[in-house]
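User: I'm new to structure prediction. If I give you an amino acid sequence, what do you actually give back? Let's try with this one:
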Amino acid sequence: MWIILLIVLLNFTIIHLAPGDPVYLLAGQSGDEKYFDFIREKFGLNRPLIVQFGTYLWNVARGDLGVSLAYQQPVINLIFSRIPATLLLMIPALLLSIVC
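Assistant: Good question. You get back a string of structure tokens that encode the predicted 3D arrangement of the chain. For your 100 residues, that looks like this:
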């Protein structure tokens, strides 16, 4: 259980240490400060980090990984859609490692 919590904390930390403001990724570079404040409020980016982490932890515990900005669909659906390809690569590699 502690390992999972540590992984979630590490993931949250890496996301927040990434360079740049995530608001510009979500809203684009061109916009006014009022719109940027709206985006911060909508996604909770104006809250203290501990509150953001609590929300993040709660969402991960419920299986809510958010929506992919690139694909405009829930992240959990993207993960499940990639499972067959992952197994197709993993099972032969596992069998080869056992035999050799």
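You can read the tokens as a compact description of the fold. Here is one thing that stands out. Residues 1-64 form one domain.
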